[in-house]
Specification:
Length: 185
């Protein structure tokens, strides 16, 4: 049931993104939480992957064999602050809904099934169409971290439809300049 609802929500987000954004990406990740020693997986879409900011709807699930059995549905905002020709480093902020399925087994006082969480973190990725990424996140509500290793595919990322991907040269002001795209400029 969880997967059916998630698939529907994720499909709607991806459809909205592809009809309203010039470029969109989709992918998945493996997740590790060192505090709970839990392993999970994630799905994500990325809207405007080659701009300074990207909007990233996300879903993650930690299966029942973990100490913490839960799923999260949220939205992240990425800010690419360190851009190089082949990779970039970004800061992220993520807010989301957390459904802690086995909260009754927790020794935590005030544990509950429905939670809101806020995460901050840092990540690294490439500018290619098939983009591996690595993220480190801190969850402010539960005071825990997680690492995500994943792969994202950016649709329509050819040079003609990808005007923001070339950050290899700097302008006189020291800021990165965008490469002009003949189709749009």
């Amino acid at each position: 049931m969880i997967f059916k609802k998630t698939t529907i929500i994720f499909s709607i987000l991806l459809f909205f993104a592809s009809t309203n954004a010039q470029i969109v990406g989709a992918g998945g990740s493996l997740i590790y939480n060192p505090q709970t020693e839990s392993v999970g997986f994630g799905l994500r879409a990325m809207i405007f992957p080659n701009k300074m900011y990207s909007i990233v709807p996300q879903f993650s699930y930690y299966p029942s064999f973990n100490k913490v059995h839960e799923f999260n549905l949220g939205l992240a905002l990425e800010y690419k602050f360190w851009k190089r020709k082949s990779y970039y480093i970004y800061l992220l902020g993520h807010g989301g809904y957390d459904s802690w399925i086995n909260y009754e087994e927790s020794p935590m006082k005030d544990a509950k099934r429905n939670n809101w969480n806020l995460e901050g973190g840092i990540g690294i990725s490439t500018w290619k169409c098939l983009r591996p990424f690595l993220e480190y996140r801190y969850n402010a509500k539960f005071m825990e971290t997680n690492l995500q290793l994943g792969l994202l595919y950016v649709f329509n990322c050819s040079s003609k439809s990808n005007p923001g991907a070339d950050y290899s040269s700097k302008s006189k002001s020291g800021l990165f300049k965008k490469k002009k795209c003949p189709a749009y400029n």
